[in-house]
Structures are given as structure tokens and as C-alpha cells.
Specification:
heterotrimer, A mainly alpha (about 325), B mainly alpha (about 290), C alpha/beta (about 260), A: mainly alpha, two-stranded antiparallel sheet, about 0% strand, C: about 260 residues, alpha/beta, Rossmann fold, 12 helices, 10 strands
């Protein structure tokens, strides 16, 4: 019965159901917090699914855009008097514009060169956040205003709510929204060009696609996703450090994207879930966190080159046939 | 003037280290087209292992030699366990594999060694020379001459020995190399061992000046990468010049502009190089074949 | 005025002249074949005409307008379309989607329309799908429509390549060895397809090693050797030309060559 539904709708249904039933399995309200973090990372990852999975362009600097989003929410309310939600939008606009300006020269590059250029861009953003301590508090980080979700709802309905629970549903809706947009794109004229660029840039050009422009479009969209994720993280934690823009965070985002299966939105979310939840589960082995992360990255990329979900699907269908 | 000379000295010293990292990149890149993001960890391992072996009572030369040997072994293992099984994987996959290796080695160093900052004594004491008003550490001379020796040694190896020529042949055309009887798997292992040893040597040479800890690898790898790209990816001479240039640019940025942004200099150089002349200073222009 | 005009075209790679001083014209509805031994510069010529390489010398004109070194997508907009010798399929997309990408110029829409999947985006999707399906039928691949390109045979991919190029509604189509690696039946089909496309008024520039096919369908043949034009004329003229025969088989194999060229 499920196979009759278009894949786009099916993916959204599966995602909605998972978001709805997950809380039933939560042993404590602490898990709402982990769920929220998973959703926030998922949003950044969905953007990278569009860039890496659809268009085949790697970026090792997207944490930089998350940094811009986060610090927009940290700085704009105090310095410009903007409400937090508008600060999130401001951050997204700044990230999008920056991506648009630097994207054209950067995206002329391919493979390793593109990886290093984006890495350099992310590093520069992270350095500014670390060094301009009079604004950003430097490496120690800074406090962030509240989005006021819980207060707003409590005022409306006269109830007592836990912040992490409210955020869980808010971030869940945002993930669904992000996934909906990315899934819309997949089978659209624009999405088809992006996916064709993944396989052969030259062939895409010869059918009349302005490939440079489309790559730029994917870069800007993914930058906006990363920025919104960064803003949400800042507003959720009410505190932010420049670590959000670090190279390691960029690497984590890319790993999440490719881990689950870069071509698909659900795969990306699966990767984000795994890599966000795992360190929480491994806190006992805190010492081993890096060793584990490195091992997972290597093992999955060596033995499941397409990522977890596609490999799983292939194995299952092979079983079914056999 | 003496101030400028001082910047030149410190720039050349770190530049020589970047050049060695870039050289390590170049060896592996030429043999396998893999850009090894774990290159910086070789430098870290060289320095850290020397510290701990030295502290265990082994004389400094013995400790350094053991550390270089150990790092070369890790290089071979990296090739055998992570790169060889992934042959034919996409560029993105390979990037993630080597970044994974880098994070893994960093985590391992954090467990096997510790998270402290370490050093061991300089080879010829710490009394600086005074040259035209600028000071030069004896260890800096070790770094410069050490880097020069490594470079000349590698040059001789690649141009004068049959084994070196076999590496170049493998780099040029793997299949053809195998057809004329070259054991390409051995050549790959050799390249990783050499590259790791070069990195470890850099770590041994520079640790008395810059100190070392488990997490110094990332920045070194990135700057070595910047150097390799500035010089022209795959060109050993370019790696040398690129490394020294990045060192000099960094030292003058720190001296005249802002020490906070000295690390930014390398990345601005990378971005400008990539935008203006992606083939680098000495690289060859490539043409896409369809 | 010719549809495609090539004047004095040339390019060097690292000091070696790959193509030099090439002149020729293609008229609407005409099939012009480029022949020559391996390394004669045929694919390089295609890459220059279609904007992938920038020539060092000479001009390319479409309807008399200078289009030398225009980006490939600009040339596509002016009605120049091509296929590739070494297949540039979109491997992770289905056969149908491959051809749908070919319809890009008629379906492109503002990005936000696609992001929000507005009704106009869905409608365009449907129209493109229908058109792509018609083109797939034309190359007899409608059964493979929903299979991923990476799982299809070489011969099928060659035909998808042609369907994708046709989706651009070209006025001139550059075909780079469309029958290479195809069996006799498939070659026969491609042969008929090319003739049919030309009948509709589309000019065709063809690189092909299958001499039977070339001699049968071409109006006009240009023989290249070492990047320069060796001879030009009707198929009959070319097959009798001693220079062409020699370039192919050396001076001793003259008779055999003449037989082979038909």
C-alpha cells in the first residue's frame, strides 16, 4: 500500500510519524533535549544533502554559515534591538548573501580544490568569531536571548510547559518544513539540473543549463539551511561559542550527510540522528569520542560507500529477491 | 630592518615545516591521487612520540629515530587499512576517510599520550645567535637544514634510484607501471611510509621551538595543504617554495598587521590562489577530457 | 548563409597543434561526416565547436553570428546540441530523467517555484515527462524509462544520449561516434534515426568510424589527418581519394583500403 504513495509524500509521512512517536519512547524529559539537537543538526544536514547529495559539490566550511546564524541571534537583539526570530532571518539573509558573493569563484573549483576553498572560507569566519572578542566574547562564547516560545505558549494557553518539550515540537516542525522543501526540489526542473551536475557537468551544460548558476543556487540554499540551524542552536542553548563555526563541526555536518546516504533527505536525517545521539550514549567513554567518530567515518566510507540507508536498502532488496 | 629580518627568520622556520608537510602531501598525492588530510597528524606523532620515548630515558637521537620509524609504520597501516580497501571510491568518500583517520589518530594520541603541551630540549641548546640585530635560534638552523636535507634526499631518491623512478611511474600510470612489472601495492605502501616519515621529521625538528600537543595536526595539515596548492599540487619544488612563502606571509602578517589573524593569512592565500590560478605557481594547466 | 560555419579553426595543446586551419560549412538538413584515423582531432574539433574548448585560432559561426568560445549552454540556446563519444550519462538518474534534463530549456522556472512546488512547477514536470517519454519511444527505450542509467547497456545509453540531445530541439546536432560499440541491429536503427532527424531539417555533424554508415547516409564527408583537412567531398569522391586511402592504411594497402571504404 505504501508503494502507491509518491516517494516524496512517503518520506514526509515516515518522518512525521517518527517525530510523533519518538517521545513515547523517551524515558525522561532529558531526551527531548537530545531530540531537539538531532532536529537542529538535521536542518543543516538537509541543506548539505541538496549541495552534496543532489549537486555533488562538497563543502568543508558550512559550519561557518551556522556560526553566522548563531551569532546573528546572539548579537542582533542587543546591538540592533531586533527580536530573536527576526535575528534568525537576518542571519539567514547574511549567510545567503555571503554564499552568493563568494560562491561563484569557489564553485568553479572541483573535488579537493573545492573542499579546501570552502574549508578556508569556514576557517576565516571562525577566526573572526574567535578574535573579535569585544563583540563575540571570543573563545569563551556569549549568552543569547530567549526566543520566548515557552513563555508565549504559556501566556496563550495558561499552562506550564518544559522548554525542551516545546523546542522538540518547534524543531520537529522546522525539520518537516526543511525536508518538504528539499523533497519538492528533488523532482523539479531545478532539482533535476542539480542532480545532473552531480553526474556530468559538461553534459548538463550542453543541454542548456547554466551550471555555474545552479551550483550557486544549491550553495546559497544550503548556506541558509546551515544558518537557520545555527540560529536555532544558539536560541535553544541560550549560549554560543565559536566552536559552532569550527572545522570539526563542518566535518561533522558533512559526515552526517554522507553517513546516512548523501542522495536522500531521510538518509541525511538518519546520519544526523546517529552522530548526534552516539556521543550522548558514549559520554561514559568520553575519552574515546574522537576515536569512535574517526572509526565510524572510515568504516562507513570504506564498506558502505553509498551510506547507511542506500546500502541497507540494497541488501534488503537483494534478500527479498534471493 | 632588524625587525623585518626577525620576521624572515621566524617565517622561514615555520615555512620549512609547512614545506615538509606539503612535501608529504605531494608524495601521497602523486602516488595515489589521494589528498591525505591526516598529514598533520604525522607531524604531531613525530613530535609526541619523541617526547615520550625521550622521557623514558632513550637518548634524543634514538628517540627521534624511533618516533620517525613508528610514524612511518602508522603511515603504512593507514594505507593498508583505510586507503587500499577504498580504492575506486569517490573524492568525497576519500576526503571523509582521511579526515576520519586524522580524527582517529588525534583521539588515539589523546589516550595513548595525554592532552598536555610538551617539548624536549633543543638539539644544540637555546642560546640564540644575533644576526644584524635579529635573533636566530640554533634549532631554527636545524629546521632549515633538516628540511633542505629531506628535500635533497627525496630528490635524489626520485631521480637517481630505480625505486624512486618506479614511484614516479606508478604515479603517472598505475596500470602501465604494473604491466612493466612494478609492484604498485608496494609502491603505495612505500609512498605512505615516506610521507609519514617526512611529516614526523618535521615534528621532531620543530617541537623544541613550537611545542607539541595531540591537536596541532589540523592547522599544520591545512597550512601544508595551502603550501602545496600555492606551489602547484603534485610538484615537490612547488611544495618547498609554497611552504616557505606561506611561512613568510604568516610571519609578516603577524608582525605588521595582527597576530590574531596570522592564521587567516594562509587561508586568504589559498582562496586567492584558487581563484586566480588554480594550477598554482608551478603546476600544470589541466584540460578536462570528454 | 550556412547554418554552421567554421573558418580557420585551430587549437594547440602544450605546443602541439591538435587542429589547424579548418574550414567547412554545414547547411540545414545536411549530414556532414568527419572521418579520420584515431588522433586526427575529430573529438577536439567537436569540443571547440560546442564551446568546451576555447580555440586558439579561427571562428565558429551560427547563422553568420560569431559564436566562437561561447559557453556550451549559450550554444544550446542557439540550437546547437551534441552527444559524447565516451557517454556523459547522468548515471544516478533514470533513463526518463536523463531525457527530461534534456528538456531543461523549455521547463526551467524560478527556483522558488520549484522549492515550494507551486502548481506551475508540477504542471511543467508533467509536460516534460510526456515529452521525454515521446523521445524515449523514438529511440525504442520506453521500456527502460524508469531504470537507472547506470544499469543500462552501452547501446541503450548511446541512444539515450541522442534522445537527450534531441530534447533540446536542436537545429544542428553533433554526434560523436553514435554507433560505436553497438551491434549490427542497433547500428542499423541509429542509421535510420539519423536520416530521419535530418529529414526534419536538422543539420547533422557526425564523427563515426563505421565507414559503411558514413558512406551511406552522408551528404558530405570531410577527412582529417593530424588535425588538418585532408580532403572534402561527396562520399564517392572521398572513398576514391588516394590521400584518404593512404592516411587510413599507408600507401601499400591502397586496394584493400579502397575496398574497405566501399
Amino acid at each position: 500500500m505504501l508503494t502507491r504513495i509518491p516517494p516524496r509524500v512517503r518520506a514526509l509521512l515516515i518522518l512525521s510519524i517518527l517525530i510523533l512517536i519518538a517521545p513515547m519512547l523517551f524515558p525522561s524529559s532529558f531526551y527531548y533535549r537530545i531530540g531537539t539537537l538531532i532536529f537542529i543538526n538535521s536542518i543543516a544536514v538537509i541543506g548539505l544533502v541538496i549541495l552534496i547529495g543532489y549537486a555533488g559539490q562538497i563543502s568543508l566550511g558550512h559550519a561557518g554559515f551556522s556560526g553566522i546564524g548563531a551569532y546573528a541571534c546572539a548579537l542582533a537583539p542587543t546591538h540592533l534591538g531586533l527580536p530573536p526570530f527576526l535575528s534568525l532571518i537576518l542571519g539567514a539573509v547574511i549567510s545567503g548573501l555571503l554564499a552568493w558573493f563568494v560562491g561563484r569563484p569557489i564553485l568553479r573549483l572541483k573535488g579537493h580544490y573545492l573542499a579546501v576553498a570552502t574549508l578556508g572560507l569556514g576557517m576565516l569566519i571562525s577566526m573572526v568569531l574567535n578574535n573579535e572578542a569585544q563583540f563575540t566574547g571570543g573563545p569563551d562564547g556569549m549568552m543569547v536571548a530567549s526566543l520566548g516560545l515557552t513563555k508565549g505558549l504559556e501566556g496563550l494557553f495558561d499552562v506550564n510547559l518544559k522548554t525542551s518539550v516545546v523546542w522538540y515540537w518547534f524543531a520537529g516542525v522546522m525539520v518537516l518544513l526543511g525536508a518538504w522543501i528539499a523533497l519538492n526540489l528533488y523532482n523539479s526542473p531545478t532539482g533535476r539540473v542539480l542532480r545532473s551536475v552531480h553526474d556530468s557537468e559538461i553534459a548538463a551544460k550542453t543541454v542548456g543549463a547554466d551550471v555555474a548558476r545552479y551550483k550557486l543556487v544549491a550553495f546559497v540554499i544550503s548556506a541558509v539551511y546551515a544558518s537557520i540551524a545555527g540560529s536555532m542552536l544558539a536560541l535553544f542553548n541560550r549560549f554560543i561559542t565559536p566552536d559552532i563555526a569550527s572545522f570539526l563541526h563542518s566535518v561533522e555536518l558533512v559526515t552526517m550527510t554522507v553517513l546516512g546516504g548523501a542522495g536522500s533527505v531521510l538518509g541525511g536525517i538518519a546520519g544526523a540522528t546517529l552522530l548526534t545521539a552516539l556521543p550522548q550514549a558514549l559520554t561514559v567513554f568520553h575519552e574515546y569520542e574522537h576515536v569512535m567518530l574517526g572509526l565510524i567515518m572510515m568504516l562507513v566510507m570504506i564498506f558502505m560507500r553509498d551510506g547507511l540507508l542506500p546500502t541497507l536498502r540494497k541488501t534488503l532488496t537483494r534478500r527479498a529477491i534471493a | 630592518m632588524s625587525e623585518f629580518l626577525q620576521f624572515v627568520f621566524s617565517g622561514l622556520t615555520v615555512g620549512a615545516v609547512y614545506a615538509l608537510v606539503a612535501l608529504g602531501f605531494t608524495i601521497i598525492y602523486n602516488a595515489s591521487s589521494v589528498v591525505n588530510f591526516a598529514q598533520g597528524e604525522f607531524v604531531m606523532l613525530g613530535g609526541m612520540a619523541t617526547v615520550f620515548i625521550f622521557d623514558a630515558g632513550v637518548p634524543i637521537w634514538g628517540a627521534a629515530a624511533l618516533a620517525i620509524l613508528l610514524t612511518a609504520t602508522i603511515g603504512i597501516l593507514l594505507n593498508k587499512l583505510a586507503i587500499e580497501p577504498a580504492r575506486g571510491a569517490s573524492v568525497v568518500n576519500l576526503i571523509i576517510i582521511t579526515i576520519g583517520a586524522s580524527i582517529f589518530l588525534r583521539g588515539l594520541a589523546q589516550i595513548v599520550f595525554d592532552k598536555q603541551i610538551h617539548r624536549f630540549p633543543a638539539f644544540s641548546g637555546d642560546t640564540p645567535f644575533n644576526i644584524a640585530g635579529a635573533t636566530l635560534l640554533p634549532q631554527s638552523i636545524w629546521v632549515l637544514f633538516g628540511a633542505a636535507a629531506v628535500f635533497i634526499g627525496l630528490y635524489a631518491f626520485f631521480t637517481r634510484t630505480l625505486m624512486g623512478k618506479a614511484v614516479l611511474a606508478t604515479a603517472n600510470n598505475r596500470l602501465a607501471a604494473r604491466l612493466v612489472g612494478i609492484n604498485t601495492n608496494f609502491i603505495m605502501a612505500l609512498s605512505f611510509a615516506l610521507s609519514a616519515a617526512v611529516g614526523a621529521t618535521a615534528g621532531v625538528l620543530v617541537t623544541p621551538i613550537t611545542l607539541t600537543s595531540y591537536d596541532i595536526g589540523v592547522m599544520l595539515a591545512l597550512k601544508g595543504f595551502a603550501a602545496a596548492m600555492l606551489g602547484g599540487m603534485g610538484n615537490p619544488f612547488g611544495a618547498l617554495v609554497g611552504g616557505l612563502l606561506i611561512g613568510l606571509i604568516e610571519a609578516t602578517t603577524a608582525g605588521y598587521l595582527s597576530s590574531d589573524y596570522k592564521d587567516a593569512a594562509a587561508f586568504i592565500v589559498i582562496l586567492l590562489t584558487l581563484f586566480v590560478m588554480p594550477q598554482g605557481l608551478f603546476g600544470q594547466k589541466s584540460m578536462e577530457r570528454v | 548563409m550556412s547554418l554552421l560555419g567554421v573558418r580557420g579553426l585551430g587549437i594547440d595543446f602544450g605546443g602541439i597543434t591538435a587542429v589547424n586551419a579548418l574550414d567547412f560549412d554545414v547547411q540545414p538538413g545536411e549530414i556532414v561526416s568527419i572521418i579520420g584515423p584515431n588522433g586526427a582531432g575529430k573529438t577536439t574539433l567537436f569540443n571547440m565547436i560546442s564551446g568546451i574548448y576555447k580555440p586558439d585560432r579561427g571562428t565558429v559561426t551560427l547563422d553568420g553570428d560569431d559564436v566562437t568560445s561561447l559557453e556550451p549552454h549559450k550554444l544550446a540556446e542557439r540550437g546547437l546540441s551534441r552527444t559524447f563519444q565516451n557517454l556523459q550519462s547522468f548515471e544516478q538518474m533514470t533513463a526518463l530523467e536523463n531525457v527530461m534534463v534534456g528538456c531543461h530549456m523549455s521547463e526551467r522556472s524560478p527556483v522558488w517555484v520549484d522549492l515550494l512546488r507551486l502548481p506551475s512547477s508540477s504542471r511543467r514536470n508533467r509536460e516534460t515527462q510526456e515529452r521525454a517519454m515521446t523521445l524515449l519511444k523514438r529511440v525504442h527505450l520506453e521500456k527502460a524509462a524508469h531504470m537507472e542509467a547506470s544499469s543500462l547497456s552501452y547501446g541503450a545509453l548511446k541512444r539515450i544520449d541522442i534522445a537527450r540531445a534531441l530534447a533540446c530541439n536542436p537545429r544542428i546536432l553533433l554526434l560523436d561516434e553514435p554507433a560505436a560499440g553497438c551491434n549490427a541491429v542497433e547500428t542499423e536503427e541509429i542509421d535510420a534515426l539519423i536520416a530521419e532527424i535530418a529529414q526534419e531539417g536538422v543539420a547533422i555533424l557526425l564523427v563515426e568510424h563505421d565507414m559503411k554508415l558514413v558512406m551511406k547516409i552522408s551528404n558530405h564527408v570531410i577527412a582529417l589527418n593530424y588535425g588538418e583537412k585532408l580532403a572534402e567531398g561527396t562520399p564517392a569522391e572521398i572513398s576514391r581519394d588516394p590521400k584518404v586511402v593512404e592516411a587510413y592504411l599507408g600507401s601499400h594497402g591502397g586496394k584493400e583500403a579502397a575496398d574497405a571504404l566501399g
